[in-house]
Amino acid sequence: MTKDDLTRVYEVELAPGSRKVRLDGKAPRPLARYFGAFNVVVFTPDDLGLPRGAPGDRRRFLDRSVFNLEPGYLAVASDHDKVLRSRNAVLRQVGQGTLSGRRADELLDVYDEQLAGLATQIAGARGRFLDRIAPELERAFAAITRTGLGVRSRLASKVAGLDAAAVRELLRESRARDLATQATQTGPHRDDLVFELDGREAGSFASQGQLRAIMLAWKTAELSLLGVVHGDLPVLLLDDVSSELDPSRNEYLFEHLAALAGQCFITTTHASHVLVHRERADYRLETGRILS
């Protein structure tokens, strides 16, 4: 990849049971260095089920998008996960009777302090991303569907908008419940990403075709946003998306992508699904080999 007259070589080596990445021939440390400067937006058929899927899947989906916008977010999220696991381990020890009294309270106080600060950073980054992608999401959905319906996304969170002291107090108030369940019940790990179509929760009320359009609009909106922020459009990877859309939405999608004028790699079961007729190169994959 060449950017700002600097050429970097990114490599991914896949083997049974392992995956290795290299940047300019070396293993990057930290790993965020590998991803932070090389912007890629990926869409797979699995994304289509997110509005009706599990909250944890939607959180991971959102966090990948946030990381593309703010590479430093990966370190914050990783630190939060480590502290959360430590706090939950203490809760389990108390429940099992191997830890109690003042020592347990002291440890939980320490982890509450750490979690509170990290939680506000995570909630803040998620909120900033949703604010910035909102207009792009509206435009992309309108371009792909041409129905006049409005779409938006929001964060369902008990800690969004709170400072560290308020989050710490919430953790303190929920400690009895946490001890009973042996798990931390309050924090960004309980957040949810909600999609709405014309003011109603899309996961409950939208049709399957509308949900597909929402998820595609999200990805193309993310593409546009990152292009503005980083100065050039990311590479877009679409995995067999066209076969999931009706002909009209498929046509609208490719018209919208052509207007963005970025680089796109598309995998599909049939070339006719890709409605691009210029600046296009086709390759065929057979028994692990790429054929032109």
Alpha-carbon Rg, integer = 22 Å
Gross morphology = globular
Terminal Cα separation, in Å? 22 Å
Per CATH, the architecture of the largest domain is Up-down Bundle
Write the layout of secondary structure elements.
Layout: E1 2-3, E2 6-7, E3 10-15, E4 18-23, H1 32-36, E5 40-43, H2 55-69, H3 73-96, H4 101-145, E6 151-156, H5 164-173, H6 175-181, E7 192-197, E8 200-201, H7 202-205, H8 208-230, E9 235-239, H9 247-260, E10 264-267, E11 284-286, E12 289-291
Parallel strand pairs: 5-9, 9-10
Antiparallel strand pairs: 1-2, 3-4, 6-7, 7-8, 11-12
Quick tags:
alpha+beta; 2 domains; three-stranded parallel beta sheet; three-stranded antiparallel beta sheet
At a glance:
With 292 residues, the chain is of the alpha+beta class. The chain has helices spanning 32-36, 55-69, 73-96, 101-145, 164-173, 175-181, 202-205, 208-230, 247-260; strands spanning 2-3, 6-7, 10-15, 18-23, 40-43, 151-156, 192-197, 200-201, 235-239, 264-267, 284-286, 289-291. The strands form 5 sheets. A 3-stranded parallel beta sheet has the order 5-9-10, with helices on one face.
